[in-house]
Structure formats: C-alpha cells, structure tokens
Sequence to fold (424 residues):
Amino acid sequence: MSKAIVSTLYDSDVFKMACRQFDKAADAISLPEAIRDRTKYPRRCLAVSLPVKRDDGSVTVFEGYRVQHNLSTGPAKGGIRFHEHVTLGEVGALAMWMSWKCSLVGLPYGGAKGGVIVDPSKLSETELEHLSRRYMQEMVNFIGPHTDVPAPDVGTNEKIMGWMMDTYSNHVGHISPAIVTGKPIAIGGSQGRREATGAGVAYLVKKYLADMKIPLSKTTVAIQGFGNVGSETALALANYGAKIIAISDYTGAFYNAKGIDLARALKYVRYQKVLRDFDGAEPITNEQLLELKCTVLVPAALERVITDKNAAKLKCRVLAEAANGPTTNAADKIIDARGDIELIPDVLCNSGGVIVSYFEWLQNLSNFYWSRDEVLTKLFGILDKAKDSVDAQQKKFQFSRRLAALTLGIQRVADAKAARGLFP
Fold:
C-alpha cells in the first residue's frame, strides 16, 4: 500500500492549484496509487544565491531556482523567469505544467522551470548580464543539452539566452548551442522561435472559431499582457482578420472599439518599454479588460488572474490561455457551469513555444537549420494533432477540455514511469 506524501518544499497557492488539477485528472483516469506521487511531485530542485556587483560598486545577492519535474520521458525543458514575485512553489507548479504540456503534444521532454527573484527593469544591461551569467554558472552541473534545456520566460529574452549559452560554452570548453533555446539566430536560434508561442495561440483560436462557425472578420479580441506572447498573438490574429480591441501590461490597459493600431502600440513599447500613457486608445484597468465584451479573451501575462471573483463576469466566447495557469480552480468550476465559453487550456494553447524550442534543439544537435516556413508548417501540424487528440478525449469521456488535455499529458508521463520501472 503506497503512502501519499505531502510536499512542504513547494508550498504556495499556485503549486496547490497545480496539484489539485493533477488530482482531479488522476482520479478521472483512475491512475494507480503506486504511480501517483511519482508522477505528481517534482524530481529535484536547486536553490542558489547569486551575488552580483552593481554599477555603483555595491553587491546584491539575488535568489534563484531550477526545478526539474520529470526526467522519465527525456531531458527536462522549461523557461527561466526573472520576476520580483518568483517563488519556489510557483517554479514547481510551472515545471509540473511543462511536463503535461510536453507530453500532450508528443515531445520527448520532461518538464522544468527556473526563476530568479528580481525586477529586471531595475537593473542596467550590464547588471542584467552579470545576473544571467551568474545564474547559468550556478546551474552548470545541474543542466545540460541531454539533461535540462532552459528557454526564455517572463522577464527574459533571446539576448539573455545568448549570454547563458556563452557562459555554459566557456565552462565546457566548446560551443554548446543546444544548452538553451530561444537564442538569437546568429548563435543557433531557430527561425520562427520568437513568434512561436503567439503564433500557436492564434492558430488554435482560428481553428476553434472555425469549429464554432464564427468568422474571423467578425471576431474581436482582448489581450491581457503585451509582452512577447501577447504581442505576437495580437499580430497573428490581426493578420487572420480579427480586430484587437484591447491590450495591456502591468502599467495599465487600453481599449479602442474600432481596433488598436498594433504597429503604433509596438513602436510605442519599443521606445517607452511599457504601455503607460499610450495615446492610441482609452485607458482602462486590467480588471476591466478581462470583463470586456469580446469574442476572444487572451490572458497572456501571469497566473491566477481569472478567479471566482470575475469568472461570472467574463463576456467572451473563447478563453485562450496564452499564459500558464491564468484560471484558478474555483474559476474553472464557474466557467464549466456557465457552459457558454469555449476554453483552450494553457497546456495546449501556449504549447507553440516549447514545440519550436524542440525544433531549435534538434537543429542545434544536428547542425542543420530550417526555414521559417518549414518551422511554422511543422508547428501547425503538431498543434493540429494535439487539438484532435484533446477533442477526441473530451468527446469520449465527456470531460471539460482542460481535463481532457491534462489526462492525456499525465497518462503518458505515468505510462513512461511505469514502463521504466522503479530503480531500487
């Protein structure tokens, strides 16, 4: 008789949320007790102190983490987040979701995630480089091209991945482009990687709207979060013919019923760094954006923004989860009970990023590179297959779409662990 464990290491609301999602899915597929905790809890983690010499000569010690959730299906894969509210529990939850995501879309990866407690906007470029390199230096013996392959996440970008790749390469004594994905093209990055997550979100939105027989020309979209994922989603949906009526970042939200000029908004952010005081639309709050009447609502920022406080007030037809874990379990119940919103769950919706990261890793290992069209064609093919499998699972068991996606991902990881057996 196996005895369930209760992890205190990752104690946080978001980790508990991920665990409840797992428990519900495991119950739904009658996952044997002997395999449950092995599949559920992270394999291992590393916490590090990161002393950085500041431009004024002072030294600040930052705290960083890396969590490897699952190594049974391949190298661990997952981003590195630089954000002031990073916690070990959050990183653990994100690593868990990465496992289900990679498994769902058929990638030979386990899930991982990393994070540093820092507001990157308060660092100079030199300080940011020193922090990035120090983080990678501390991770050198914990990760590797066949062990754990990091990528960008909130607060990090391709430049930071370039610094990290260079740091690792200097340590091992030869160039090792496959150690990270999301790098600049010049040092082994993949065509299409920058826009991959947003392009995937937009593609799946288009597919589900077609299923609902809603023309893109009559589709309005509100996007919470205008970073890499949110802005690329906006551009791709606009190119499909949809109208983007609202965008936001942490400094505020902006609404224009006639449609936002995305080129103007992107130029503004390029120079101002944030959307604050953007004059191309009416200022509203992020809370108001989530409750706007629209065809598609895209939460593309942080987790747990759709809660039991606002779930009943949503006025969208499609909720496309471009962020990880944007909808709480309590909000999920309300949305399920409403029955008038089509949910595209995060583990499916935002999987385009890790799919093209996988392509980048393959190209690095083989030293053979593909065109952007090849990358996007392969991406959309994998998304089609994943969508079809989720829809079939949903229909077969009468699950919600989130439960259908999670049960597929979790079952495949559990099967891999069972097949490999338990090392004594």
